[in-house]
UniProtKB/TrEMBL annotation:
<feature type="domain" description="EAL">
    <location>
        <begin position="566"/>
        <end position="817"/>
    </location>
</feature>
<dbReference type="InterPro" id="IPR000014">
    <property type="entry name" value="PAS"/>
</dbReference>
<dbReference type="Pfam" id="PF00990">
    <property type="entry name" value="GGDEF"/>
</dbReference>
<dbReference type="Pfam" id="PF00563">
    <property type="entry name" value="EAL"/>
</dbReference>
<dbReference type="InterPro" id="IPR001633">
    <property type="entry name" value="EAL_dom"/>
</dbReference>
<dbReference type="Pfam" id="PF08447">
    <property type="entry name" value="PAS_3"/>
</dbReference>
<dbReference type="InterPro" id="IPR035965">
    <property type="entry name" value="PAS-like_dom_sf"/>
</dbReference>
<dbReference type="GO" id="GO:0003824">
    <property type="term" value="F:catalytic activity"/>
</dbReference>
<protein>
    <submittedName>
        <fullName>EAL domain-containing protein</fullName>
    </submittedName>
</protein>
<dbReference type="InterPro" id="IPR029787">
    <property type="entry name" value="Nucleotide_cyclase"/>
</dbReference>
<feature type="domain" description="GGDEF">
    <location>
        <begin position="424"/>
        <end position="557"/>
    </location>
</feature>
<dbReference type="InterPro" id="IPR035919">
    <property type="entry name" value="EAL_sf"/>
</dbReference>
<dbReference type="InterPro" id="IPR000700">
    <property type="entry name" value="PAS-assoc_C"/>
</dbReference>
<dbReference type="Pfam" id="PF13426">
    <property type="entry name" value="PAS_9"/>
</dbReference>
<dbReference type="InterPro" id="IPR001610">
    <property type="entry name" value="PAC"/>
</dbReference>
<feature type="domain" description="PAC">
    <location>
        <begin position="61"/>
        <end position="113"/>
    </location>
</feature>
<feature type="domain" description="PAC">
    <location>
        <begin position="320"/>
        <end position="371"/>
    </location>
</feature>
Amino acid sequence: MPSIVLDPIGRILATNFHFDRLPVQREAGSADFLIGYLQDDDRSVFSALQLTSLSSKAETHPLELQFVTDDGSPLWMMAHVKAMTANTVPSANLLVQFCDITQIKKRELDLSDRESRWKDALVSSSTGVWDYRQDLGTWYYSNEWRAIRGLAPDDPLPPTTEEWLEFVHPDDRERVVLCVERQKAGDPDYMTFEYRERHKDGHWVWIECRGACVDWDEEGAPRRIIGTDVDITSRKLAEEKIAHMSRRLKLALEVSHIGVFETDFDAGTSDWDDGMMTLFGIKGSQRMQIGGIWEQMLHPEDAERVFSKVDHHVANLLPFSDEYRVTLEDGSIRYIRSRTLPFVDQDGHRKMIGANWDVTADLALHRELERAKTLAEARNAELEAAKARIEHIAMHDYLTDLPNRRYLDEKLNSFTEAASTTTGGLAVLHIDLDRFKEINDTLGHSAGDMMLKHAAKVLKANTRVGDFVARIGGDEFVFLARFEGSQRELAQLADRIISELRKPVSYDGHECRFGASIGIACELGPELDARQLLLNADIALYHAKNRGRNRHEFFSRDSHRHMVDTRRLSDEILRALENDEFVPHYQFQFNARSLAIAGAEALARWKHPRQGLLTPDRFLSVAEELGVMPQIDALILEKALADFEKWRALGLSVPKISVNVSTRRLHDPQLRKKLGTLTFDPGTLSFELLESIFLDEYDQQAMENLDHLRKLGVDLEIDDFGTGHASIVSLLRLNPKSLKIDRQLVRDVTQSTEQRKLVRSIIDIGRSLNIGVTAEGVETPEHVRILAALGCDVLQGFGLARPMAFSKTADFIAGETWRRPFS
C-alpha cells in the first residue's frame, strides 16, 4: 500500500516503495510537499484534512484525491490520514496511506455520463419515465411524464389505480386495465399499448406506454417494472387524417370507376389495383408483368403509337395523357383514357404511376352529339326564319301588330342611352281610350278588338319619321315623338289624335263612338330620362281623366306634387285604419216642436297623430278613391253602437243614432253577413244615403241590401235632399224613413220667401209619402221658429249643437244648453 509521512506543514518526510513507484508528476517548486502532487481542486481539501488530523490526533474519514500523472491520465487515490505516535506519545507528524481507486472512479464517472446522456435524451424526446416497484407498491414518475399530462412537478397524482382510471378515456379503460395487469405479470405481448388520457386542460392525449420487467424475485416473479410514456397525439391525428384521405380517395375511385397502377420499368413489374382489374375484365389476383397481359390487350392499330409515347415520356420524365383501345376477353372493344406521371424513386428505379378510366360511353355520346349537331345545322336555316318570326311576335301586340310593352322598354332604354350624344328631345304621349269598356261590355270583345285596331291605325297614320307607337295593354297606348322644344306642336298632335278617335266607327250595324284622354311629358337635353318621362306622362293622363276625359294634359310639377300628396295621404289613411285612428263625433238632432233630443248623427273624424282632428273634407275623396270608405263606415258604425249602449247605461235618452253609408258599402255583397254580427234594437239605427250618388243609379245588389236593412229594423234616410237629381219615382222605390233637406236650401229661409216655399214643398212631399223631414244647417233661433212653423219634424245644425266627442255628450245632454235661447 503506498504510504508517506508528513510533518506538520505537509512536507514529505518519508515514502515507501509502493508510493515511489506511482506515476505521479510533481509541480515545480513544491517537490517536498504532498500538495505538489495533487490536482488544484484537491489541494485545499487535503490541507483542511491535515489540520483536522493534527488537532484531533485521531484517524479522520478517508478522502478521495486526484494526483497529477506523467501522461496526464487521472489517478484517483483514497487517502487515510492519522497522527503518528512515538513510544506511545503522539507526535506532530502524520501517516498518510493510499489506496488506488482509479478503476472504481472511472466506472462511476462513466455511469454518471451514461445516466446524464439518457436523461438528456429522455428530456429532449419528451419521453416520460415511470418506475413501479411491485415488491414495495411504489411508483416513480419523471417530470416529463407529468408534462405530457399538463402536470407541474408538484401537482398531486391520483392515489389509487381506480382514481387514475377516471382520467382514462371511457372507451379505453377496460383494455388499459388488462394491459397494465399483463405488464405487471411480465407478459412480453403487452410491453407496448396505446390509450387516451385526459390532459389537465381537458382535452384527450394519446399516449404510447412501453414497459418491461427489469428485476425478478427468487421465484421468478416480476419485482420491478420500468417504462416510458410518449405523447403520440400528433401521430394519431396524422394517422386519422391519412385514413380519412385514404377513405375519400378510395370512395372517389370506386364512384368514378378509375383504376390506378404503378409500373417499375427496371423491375419489369406493374402493380394494379382492383379498379384496374375490373376495368380490363381481369379476374383473380394475377401478377402483372411488362410485356404481358396489358400489351396483348392493346388494339393493334393503337399499340405502336402508345408504346412510342410511353417510351418518349418516361425517358424524359414528362407527364402525359393518352387515349387508346383495348380488346377484352369477351371480344368487346373498350376505349381507355389515361393520365400518367413518370418519375425516379429513391432507389433510382424508373417508374410510372397513372390512372385509367373507361370513356367508351363518353365517346359514344360524343358521336351522338356530333350527329345531333349535323342535324341541327341542317335545320338552322328553318330555325333562323322561325326565330325572326318569334322575335316579331315577342316584341309586338298580337291584335294590332303594334310594338308591345317589352319593345317599348327597349326603345326607352335606347333613347336614354343616346340622350347624351344627341341634341334633340323626346315627348311621351300616354293615350287611354274613353268609353272603350262600355263598347266592349255591351257589344262584345269582337267590337272591342275592332276599336283597338282602328285606334292603332289612327296612331300609325299620325307618326312621323323617328316616331314610335306601342300598345302596352288593354286600351292603353304610348306614342314616342321627337321633341324640338315646341309644346304647341305636341298639343296639336294630341288634339288631332283625339279628334280622329272621336269619329264614329261602324260595327255590325252599330255606330260606335269613343274618344281618348292623353297625358303628355316632354324633355330636352343630355340628362333626358325616358322612363321617367313615361311615369310623368302617366301622371298627366291621370289629371286628364279627372278633368273630364277626351282631352290632353301636360305634365307639371304641381300635378306631380298633388299626386305625391295624394299617395302620401293614402298611405296615412291605411296606417290610420291599422292604428284605429278613426272615431265618431256626434251631432244631436232635435224635435222641431219640443226641442227634445230626437237622435244623434255619427260623423267620422280622423285623430291624426300630427295634424290633430281632421274632418271628412280632408280625407273623404282620397279614401273613396282608395276604396276604404266601407271600412271606415264599418268602424264608425261599430263604435257608434257601442257609445249608444253607454248612453243607455248612463240613463241618457237618445232615441236613435244615424250613420253615413258610402255607395261602395251599399253595393257590398257581404254587407248582410257583416251586419249580422252587430246587436241593436229595431228603430234605433238609421243609415243615411247621399241622394246625389244613389237614387237614380242603383243595381240589384244594392236593392237587395236595402231590403235586408229594412228587415233588420234599420231606418233609411236620404241625405242632402234637394241638391241632387233624384226623381219622385226613385223616392217611391226607395221608400225611406225620412229625408234631410240640404243646408243650402235651409240657409236663406229666414230672408227669402221663395226659399220658404221650396222647403215647404219638400215637407209636403214628405208628408204625402209618409216620410219624415229633417232640416240641416239650423244656425239661429229664427231658423228653429220658421222651420217648425213650416212643419219640419227634426232640426239639426250648429245653432243647436255642434259635433262633439262622446266624452262631452253626457254633460251636454244633462245641461240642455240648446234650450237657453228659447227660454
